[in-house]
Write a structure and sequence with these properties.
By secondary structure, this protein is mainly alpha-helical. It has a domain of 54 residues. It has three helices and two strands, in the order αββαα. Strands 1-2 form a two-stranded antiparallel sheet. Helix 1 packs across helix 2.
């Protein structure tokens, strides 16, 4: 795996949380986004930049299990924990 892509994926995840970097203010909007509109009664729409999706796919390819499976297991564990409370 190319080091540049690994660094780009990690930088994308790091930039999601943590310190905010000073960036020049521009009016450029993301051109490619995915919108999730399943229920018309939803209060908000989730918009995920394509670059973040690509970064997560790169990181997921490096793991033994896909990120989706890891998230499902974590959610299932949380549900089990809450059932016992």
């Amino acid at each position: 795996m190319n080091e540049r892509y690994k660094k780009a994926g990690l930088d994308a995840l790091i930039s999601m949380g943590g310190e905010k970097k000073e960036r020049p203010k521009t009016n450029i909007q993301p051109t490619e986004t995915t919108e999730q509109k399943e229920d018309p009664g939803q209060f908000f729409t989730t918009r995920i930049p394509k670059t973040l999706i690509k970064s997560l796919k790169v990181l997921s390819a490096q793991l033994e299990k896909p990120i989706q499976d890891i998230v499902k297991e974590a959610i299932q564990e949380k549900i089990e924990t809450l059932k016992h409370v």
